[in-house]
Amino acid sequence: MRRYAIGVVGDVHLGAVKWKSALALGEQLVDYGYRIVSGGHGDLAKALAEGARKSTRYRDGDLISILPGLDPSVADERGTYSLQTAMLW
């Protein structure tokens, strides 16, 4: 079965309401069979990853981080896979 990836971008810092929305989004995307691609750092990536891991359908490979630098540790445990782009800003 083909699994599609969907990119999610947004704020690095989230308030309580946006945090809850990002948690729910992460869980629902994985529930529906999507992989999640994010920037790999900040509150949004953390909330998406936390929500995704709550899904009963979660498995390795569901979280992909595209990082702006060369340091994979920036993504912490937010992504199953990390891509370092060396596109420092």
Task: Explain what you see.
This protein has 2 helices and 4 strands, in the order E-H-E-H-E-E. The chain has a 4-stranded parallel beta sheet, with helices on one face. It has one domain (5-84). The protein has 89 residues and is an alpha/beta fold.
How far do the termini sit from each other?
Answer: 38 Å
What is the helix tally? 2
Query: What Rg do the Cα atoms give?
Result: 12 Å
Could you list the spans in which at least 5 consecutive residues all have pLDDT below 50? Answer: none
Profile the largest sheet: 4 strands, parallel
Order of secondary-structure elements: EHEHEE
Query: In total, how many domains does the architecture comprise?
Result: 1
Helix content: 25-40%
| Inertia-based shape | globular
What number is the mean pLDDT?
88
Percentage beta strand: 15-25%
Class derived from helix and strand content:
alpha/beta
Strands, count: 4
Strand order across the biggest sheet? 1-2-3-4
Oligomeric state, counting identical vs distinct chains: single chain
Keywords:
89 residues, alpha/beta, 4-stranded parallel β-sheet, 2 helices, 4 strands, 33% helix
In short:
This protein has 89 residues and is an alpha/beta fold.
Write the layout of secondary structure elements.
Elements: E1 5-7, H1 16-31, E2 35-38, H2 42-54, E3 63-67, E4 81-84
Parallel strand pairs: 1-2, 2-3, 3-4
